[in-house]
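Suppose you are handed a protein chain with no further information: no name, no annotation, nothing but its sequence. What can you learn? This example shows the usual starting point.
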Amino acid sequence: MKTQTLMVVPTSAIFLALALFLGAVINAYAGHHGYMMLSSDISEMDTNNDGVVTFEEYSALHSEKLRWGFNALDTDNDAYISANEWETFLKMHGVVKGYNKNQPG
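A reasonable first move is to predict its three-dimensional structure. Written in structure tokens, the prediction is:
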């Protein structure tokens, strides 16, 4: 039986890479659509005009941005982010895999 080696990526490196990626996505999206994700006026999110924003209203506005980010990671368009696609993303953003947990030290 062939055993698979598990590579561990430091959590902070993953969060940094994801933050960099999402920042790039948000900047590209905001520039393309002419507005920033953060706004001082909540009326854009408050779709029923009751003066407050529910999670459903908030998530509906941002779901298109999240979908764009997901699709950017899903390079083969199969509706899944594979380990290979994730590794490619990490490499593109300068994140290297950590140590092999099966190695001594």
